TrEMBL record:
Record EC number: 3.1.-.-
Species in which this protein is naturally found: Chitinophaga lutea
InterPro entries reported in the protein's UniProt record: MBL, RibonucZ/Hydroxyglut_hydro, Xnuc_lig_assoc
Signal peptide: none
UniProt keyword terms in alphabetical order: Exonuclease, Hydrolase, Ligase, Nuclease
Protein name listed in UniProt: Ligase-associated DNA damage response exonuclease
GO molecular function, one term: exonuclease activity
Length: 333
């Protein structure tokens, strides 16, 4: 039997349906798991994604793109191929892609996390014969605190900064991580002041009905006295920039799974590191693989060789696959 999906120089390909999943080179038909730029790239003739991802793809790639959106669980047919999207929990609109051909089901998970963050949708494991998993944090050292614990840590840090006369600045990726923080810290923060990249994503989501609290765009006219009563959120790209210096004196916090490793915050010249990730930790990866019931697992971007070897040693057929994903991992993770 021919494989449902194959791994090519353009990306993950479905021969029976003649489409690619998250291609890294331009193709006629692209099926997209989520709107981060390492998975949703410019230049494809047509994009198929979840309905919630359509406005985010248009924000990133331009309103002129040809994009079709499906609801979670809705099935589309290409020839004898059935395609559907299922919640991945990674960010708003993110999905796993379920592909079934002649009774064989493969699932390409894209990026995913197993803890429900309250805004991105709860992850749902999908039964399949073959599962394609990421492994961004595919090492046993990566074990996340609960989101509630992390949010409490951030609130305590903000209070400590205020007592010390410092403004609080968090670095968080503009699409996904920033909205997760804003949504879950609402009520604990008087005002959110944000960088333009975060503001644009936030406004797009507000326009499409997402229940996010309001934020204020930081401009040259933003009163400095607002800084002390606000949580300032910036993308990592603005760190050590002239834009950042306006907030002095400030304390800098980094929100990333990489903060799990001692010393990473110091290497980024940060005062605090919060290990909050939009990817599954080691136990989340293993639990998900077990729940799929997959007979074969392909492991992509991250610590792929480690996870693949662990699965093999524990009786699960697994193989490492090289992809072009992960170019944003240092910032979105």
């Amino acid at each position: 039997m021919e494989p449902v999906l194959t791994f090519t120089d353009n990306g993950i390909y479905c021969p029976a349906g003649d489409f690619y999943i998250d291609p890294w080179k331009p193709v006629p038909r692209a099926v997209i798991t989520h709107a981060h730029s390492d998975h949703a790239r410019w230049g494809n003739d047509h994009y198929l994604c979840t309905k919630d991802s359509v406005p985010l793809l248009q924000l990133r790639l331009g309103k002129e793109i040809s994009a079709q959106g499906l609801s979670y669980g809705e099935t589309l047919r290409f020839n004898n191929v059935q395609v559907s999207f299922h919640p991945a929990g990674h960010m708003i609109g993110s999905a796993q892609v379920k592909v079934t051909v002649d009774g064989q089901t493969w699932v390409a998970s894209g990026d995913y996390k197993t803890e429900n963050d309250g805004i991105s949708g709860a992850f749902e494991p999908v039964k399949c014969h073959v599962f394609i998993t990421e492994s961004t944090f595919g090492l046993p050292i990566y074990h996340w605190k609960t989101q509630q614990q992390i949010m409490s840590d951030i609130q305590a840090w903000i209070y400590k900064n205020k007592q010390a006369g410092k403004n609080s600045v968090l670095l968080a990726y503009s699409l996904g991580k920033a909205q997760r923080l804003i949504y879950n810290l609402r009520g604990a923060v008087e005002r959110f002041l944000v960088h333009g990249a975060i503001y644009n994503a936030h406004e797009t989501l507000l326009q499409h009905g997402w229940p996010l609290p309001p934020v204020e765009l930081i401009t040259h006219d933003t009163p400095k006295e607002h800084f002390a009563d606000s949580l300032i959120i910036s993308p990592p790209s603005a760190a050590d920039s002239a834009w950042m210096r306006r907030f002095a004196p400030y304390s800098l916090g980094v929100c990333s799974g990489w903060m799990q490793v001692r010393g990473n915050a110091r290497r980024q010249n940060a005062d605090a590191g919060f290990a909050i990730s939009d990817h599954a930790d080691w136990q989340g990866l293993l639990q998900t693989i077990r729940h799929t019931g997959a007979e074969k697992v392909f492991v992509t971007h991250g610590f792929s060789s480690v996870l693949a070897r662990y699965l093999q040693e524990n009786g699960i057929a697994a193989a490492e696959v090289k992809t072009d994903y992960g170019s944003e991992e240092d910032t979105t993770a």
